[in-house]
């Protein structure tokens, strides 16, 4: 009896002390969400110290940092998002942008810890914007190395290029708006326009960086705290640096060649009257067929699209007549052919870069040939003949008949 | 034990004995009289309130004090009254139950339960006449288990009424009631009910065994029985189902389970019980199978929700902020601005206050009850948020958790899940999602090990029995449930018809 009592007490003591061990760890690595600086956007620019930074450096008497990169982090402004504060006083910005200058990415991020109370927290980072100027001197690979390596940053984070100051992209005039999320929303508009590239996330970028071929990144322009998606930046496959710019029209051409558009318009002029006709894309597909004949490589591109007559300025036109519809189709086809031709010329003559995925098709269908040419593909591509076959079909002309 | 004091032939000494034993009780009445006009003295002893006064006045006293009876008695017994006992029992007293008793202790216990003792001059034994008058209340709809569709009948506090309610389920000779007595000092009647042809004899034997092992002064409620017969008294989960509904008991009996009814309580016990039973309602079977299945799945969800939601909130807020969708994370950051407490403390404050509110609402008299709603809703909900003590999201979390726990049909399971919820919250605060999962694993391993009268608690999930899944999380059409649950090892595996 006494012994069992003793054993019971021992058991109780043991279990109690084991339980206390758990308490000893406390709330290990627990950190409340509101005590963190949640970064949602990031911009990389050529090093340019802000006035505050310069003054602080002077006061601190520390040796001057190497300052080749300026990073701008966009944080959530918790005060603005909370309900109570928005009702009283002037509306605050929903975000806080903080810039820091340094030599490479992580040292700059750590520098934030010297001036911000909330630890930087990046799983919600949505957008990385890199300025064109920085990409001219720095390899994209090196700039993004930390983000690809670190597991706190999601591989779904998108990468954009800005042809001006990247930090201006992360600004907005509208109170309550988060620029980083706004950019993310614009990417989703691909069903409305063919002038937006398929989004390039860090995950996709890894593959592109590892292949030797050139690729495109969506370009975004910023002015007066407004942003607009404009064209695309060409990244050279070898140097991984900025190699050129494609404007909106070129981008549309690329979209037609790749067939990856989800929507958009074709503006064309009626042959007879010279009036505007707008063709709205419903579906779009393209097939790039490589042909190899000895050393000669050529490509056929078949582009098919279905769409509707959305806007018609032609007088006395009768959309009920097939003849008129055929005329419209022809006009639109001509327009598309011009788009793809012009971008092809640009790719082959000016940029010497295949950014429309021709090499990829060749690799899949003629792997042996690809092995031979892949080393110098961008150069080879510049001389390859490409034939386009464009077929647009008008399936719908809306609710209006002949205009009288 | 007191020494036995048997009655003697002497009427007066017997009467004195009784007087000494129970006469000082205020509610014990001793009425002395004579048979008709004869000199044979007699007295009746009864307890006011327990015995039926009408019956005593109009049947017992009227008959005995009648001349004709006295004459008959004298003729019949030819002077020897002691021999006339048979005559009294057989010809005079129109009472359905008459016992003889030889000593005063026997008499005492019986009289104090409502019997009337009849002591006749010249007779050594007293007669005990069953004049027990049971005050019953009306049969009401069960308070704790109301249904939209189903009989509006609940058990009452009277055992005989309750067994009658069970008998009334249909003509069924199978239904067997075994009578037991529990309580060492204050004995109470207890009945084990089962279907003779269906229930597994080993199970019935086990129930009898555990009932006879109950050693306690007094059993005021079936909750006492439950705590004595349950398999694991350290487990937070109820291992016996208690119900107020006769229809629920009958369907359990027809499945091969055993029911235990105790006098003085409307709560019957059903054993063995499985976890899924506690999430079921008789209505599942009364409604069509598609809505019933949906509602059952919903209840499983509410069980998980009431257990895990605050813990998940804590772990997402303090450990895995990256797992929250960005827009939600932004609004949570906003709403938590100025909240001075870590997520655990915030959750504890709210959870504890809602538990207090629930408890207070339960005890309050009905007219004041709604006040709790106002105080709770306004003060705790609105004011706490405005004062910046908790965030509005936390209020939502607590509210969802609370209504989830109220959606669990079994009250006692709801309580246990609420209790365990606090433990999960602590382990979430210590280790985040990892802690929640760890705790859940521990809990599951306990559940898997737990048994109720030999039946594993989480059957048919573990041990896996596909045929019993027809009546587990889903409720298949009745036509498809031809067989009784296999887990019960019934004598008759198939249902008739």
Automatic annotation (TrEMBL), chain A:
**Matches recorded under Pfam families:** Spore_GerAC, Spore_GerAC_N
**What kind of membrane protein is this, topologically?**
Lipid-anchor
Checking InterPro entries in the record gives: GerAC_N, Spore_GerAC-like, Spore_GerAC-like_C, Spore_GerAC_C_sf
GO cellular-component term (any) = membrane
Q: Which residues form the Spore germination GerAC-like C-terminal domain?
A: 230-398
**Domain Spore germination protein N-terminal as annotated: residue spans:** 30-219
Q: What GO biological process, any one, is recorded here? A: spore germination
Q: Is Phosphoprotein one of the keywords UniProt gives this record? A: no
Task: Locate the transmembrane regions by residue number.
Answer: none
What family name appears in the similarity comment?
Answer: Belongs to the GerABKC lipoprotein family.
The cross-references to PANTHER family, in alphabetical order and at most eight, read:
SPORE GERMINATION PROTEIN B3
- What protein name is recorded for this chain? Germination protein
User: What is the taxonomic lineage of the source species?
Assistant: Bacteria, Bacillati, Bacillota, Bacilli, Bacillales
TrEMBL record, chain B:
| Xref: PANTHER family | LEUCINE ZIPPER PROTEIN 4, SPORE GERMINATION PROTEIN
GO BP terms: spore germination
Q: Where are the transmembrane segments?
A: 258-279, 300-319, 368-387, 393-415, 422-443
The keyword Transmembrane appears for this protein: yes
InterPro entries associated with the record:
Spore_Ger, UPF0353/GerABKA_families
What high-level taxonomic lineage is stated for the organism?
Bacteria, Bacillati, Bacillota, Bacilli, Bacillales
Family membership, please give it: Belongs to the GerABKA family.
Organism annotation: Brevibacillus formosus
Q: What keywords would UniProt list here?
A: Membrane, Transmembrane, Transmembrane helix
Descriptive protein name: Membrane protein YndD
* Entry's Gene Ontology cellular component terms: membrane
């Amino acid at each position: 009896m006494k012994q069992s009592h003793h054993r019971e007490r021992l058991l109780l003591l043991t279990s109690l002390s084991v339980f206390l061990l758990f308490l000893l760890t406390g709330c290990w690595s627990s950190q409340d969400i509101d005590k963190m600086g949640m970064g949602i956007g990031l911009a990389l620019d050529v090093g340019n110290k802000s006035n505050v930074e310069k003054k602080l450096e002077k006061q601190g008497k520390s040796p001057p940092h190497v300052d080749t990169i300026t990073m701008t982090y966009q944080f959530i402004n918790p005060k603005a998002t909370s309900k109570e504060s928005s009702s009283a006083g002037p509306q605050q910005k929903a975000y806080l942008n903080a810039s820091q200058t340094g030599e490479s990415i992580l040292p700059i991020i750590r520098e934030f810890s010297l001036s911000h109370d909330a630890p930087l927290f990046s799983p919600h980072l949505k957008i990385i914007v890199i300025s064109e100027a920085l990409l001219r001197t720095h390899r994209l690979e090196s700039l993004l190395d930390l983000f690809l390596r670190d597991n706190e940053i999601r591989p779904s984070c998108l990468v954009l290029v800005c042809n001006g100051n990247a930090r201006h992209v992360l600004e907005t005039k509208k109170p309550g708006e988060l620029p980083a999320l706004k950019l993310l929303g614009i990417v989703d508009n691909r069903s409305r326009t063919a002038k937006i590239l398929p989004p390039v996330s860090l995950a996709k970028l890894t593959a592109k960086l590892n292949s030797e071929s050139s690729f495109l990144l969506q370009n975004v322009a910023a002015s007066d705290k407004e942003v607009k998606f404009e064209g695309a930046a060409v990244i050279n496959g070898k140097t991984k640096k900025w190699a050129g710019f494609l404007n909106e029209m070129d981008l549309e051409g690329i979209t037609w060649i790749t067939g990856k558009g989800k929507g958009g318009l074709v503006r064309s002029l009626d042959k007879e009257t010279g009036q505007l006709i707008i063709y709205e894309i419903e579906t779009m597909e393209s097939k790039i067929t490589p042909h190899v004949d000895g050393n000669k490589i050529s490509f056929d591109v078949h582009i098919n699209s279905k769409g509707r007559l959305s806007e018609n300025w032609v007088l006395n036109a009768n959309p009920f007549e097939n003849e008129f519809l055929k005329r419209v189709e022809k006009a639109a086809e001509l327009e598309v052919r011009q788009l793809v031709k012009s971008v092809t010329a640009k790719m082959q003559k000016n940029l010497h870069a295949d950014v429309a995925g021709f090499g990829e098709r060749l690799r899949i269908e003629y792997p042996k040939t690809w092995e031979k040419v892949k080393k110098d593909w961008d150069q080879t591509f510049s001389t390859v003949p490409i034939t386009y076959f464009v077929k647009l079909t008008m399936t719908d002309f809306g609710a209006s008949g002949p205009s009288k | 034990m007191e020494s036995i004091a048997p009655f003697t032939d002497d009427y007066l000494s017997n009467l004195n004995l009784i007087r000494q034993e129970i006469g000082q009780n205020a509610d014990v009445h001793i009425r002395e009289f004579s048979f008709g006009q004869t000199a044979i003295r007699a007295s009746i002893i009864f307890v006011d309130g327990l015995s039926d006064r009408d019956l005593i006045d109009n049947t017992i006293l009227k008959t005995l004090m009648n001349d004709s009876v006295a004459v008959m008695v004298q003729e019949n017994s030819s002077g020897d009254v002691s021999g006339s006992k048979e005559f009294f029992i057989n010809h005079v007293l129109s009472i359905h139950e008459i016992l003889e008793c030889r000593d005063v202790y026997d008499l005492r216990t019986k009289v104090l339960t409502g019997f009337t003792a009849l002591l006749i001059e010249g007779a050594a034994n007293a007669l005990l006449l069953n004049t027990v008058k049971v005050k019953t209340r009306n049969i009401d709809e069960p308070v704790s288990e109301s249904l939209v569709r189903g009989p509006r009948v609940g058990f009452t506090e009277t055992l005989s009424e309750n067994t009658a309610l069970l008998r009334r389920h249909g003509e069924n000779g199978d239904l067997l009631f075994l009578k037991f007595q529990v309580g060492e000092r204050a004995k109470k009647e207890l009945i084990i009910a089962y279907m003779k042809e269906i229930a597994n004899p080993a199970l019935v034997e086990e129930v009898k065994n555990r009932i006879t092992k109950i050693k306690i002064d007094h059993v005021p409620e079936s909750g006492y029985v439950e705590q004595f017969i349950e398999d694991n008294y350290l487990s937070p989960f109820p291992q016996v189902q208690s119900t107020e509904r006769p229809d629920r008991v009958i369907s359990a009996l027809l499945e091969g389970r055993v029911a235990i009814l105790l006098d003085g309580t409307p709560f019957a016990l059903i054993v063995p019980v499985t976890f899924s039973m506690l999430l079921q309602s008789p209505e599942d079977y009364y409604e069509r199978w598609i809505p019933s299945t949906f509602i059952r799945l919903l209840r499983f969800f509410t069980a998980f929700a009431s257990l895990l939601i605050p813990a998940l909130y804590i772990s997402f807020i303090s450990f895995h902020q990256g797992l929250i969708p960005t827009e939600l994370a932004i609004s949570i950051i906003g709403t938590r601005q100025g909240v001075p407490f870590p997520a655990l403390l915030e959750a504890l404050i709210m959870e504890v206050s809602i538990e207090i509110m629930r408890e207070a609402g339960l005890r309050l008299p009905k007219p004041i009850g709604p006040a709790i709603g106002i105080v709770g809703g306004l003060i705790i909900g609105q004011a706490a948020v405005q004062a910046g003590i908790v965030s509005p999201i936390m209020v939502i979390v607590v509210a969802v958790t609370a209504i989830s726990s109220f959606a669990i049909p079994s009250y006692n399971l709801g309580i246990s899940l609420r209790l365990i919820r606090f433990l999960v919250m602590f382990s979430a605060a210590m280790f985040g999602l990892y802690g929640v999962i760890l705790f859940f694993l521990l809990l599951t391993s306990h559940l898997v090990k737990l048994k109720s009268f030999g039946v594993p608690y989480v059957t048919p999930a573990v041990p896996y029995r596909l045929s019993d899944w027809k009546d587990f999380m889903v409720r298949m059409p009745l036509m498809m449930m031809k067989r009784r649950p296999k887990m019960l090892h019934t004598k008759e595996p198939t249902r008739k018809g």
